[in-house]
Design a protein that fits this description.
Number of strands: 0
Oligomer: single chain
Shape: globular
Strand content: under 5%
Helix content: over 70%
CATH topology: 434 Repressor (Amino-terminal Domain)
Amino acid sequence: MKTTEYLDAVKAKLDLPSDYALAKLFGVVTSTIIAYRHGRSAFGIEVSMKVGEILGIDGHAVYADGQIERAKNAAQMDFWKGISEKFSVSFRNLLLGYGPHVA
């Protein structure tokens, strides 16, 4: 489950002692963190962007990963996987300096 991995990575990177500290960081209540961990809720865009910022990854991809986990059918899952792959390719190209350049 990517969501749990993201939560644990943020806690480790910032040396946070608890899910309570994680909740304060994201501006949510502890029960929201528990809901994330148990797959009852997905990150909103604000939390996804903050996770991405902290971990040095694209927050949009974090958001898409959460939507993949919560997809109710194969069509929804495929849609979000496509979005996630596009973000990954775009971000990788940006890092490598590909894409349109302004002279």
